[in-house]
Specification:
The chain has 171 residues and is mainly beta. The chain has no helices and 17 strands.
Amino acid sequence: AAKTIALAAGHYVTELNLTRSLTIVGRCAAKVTLKTTVWGSIAADWQDGPVEVELRGVTITGPGSGVLAKNGAIVRLRRVHVVQAVGLGLGALGGKLDVEDSVIQGTTGPSGDWHGEGIGVTLGGSALLHRVRVTANAFAGIWVQGSFQGLIGDELLVDSTVASGPGAESN
């Protein structure tokens, strides 16, 4: 069974590479902040078996990437704000994202292969987005590249993205 960690109000500096199922619950996104390290992120990675991670009621901020679902891992986000990540806000990199009632805002770049995408789906990944706002990201709101299993969204708002940097075209 998955373990649950409850976070009190506060700011936490972290880099998580989760290889086991886990639920992290914050009091609310306005009161609980997880700040990634310079090259870090919060990543779920299927290595020794199925991995399902759920994050609820937290804000995640950079200077690293936001949340990554890798290699078949499943990541559920509920009432999560990803603010000012670097490179990639949310990534389905061969894994599955299930995001609800969340905001991805102000992702900047570049960092590695990513240029400031709010949400990136590639390497056989997929994303289910319900009541999600993707706003003010530097390169693209949602970027789908190469092989992917699917992208489904409802009540999805993508706005205020100003494409800049390598490969961006000006209007």
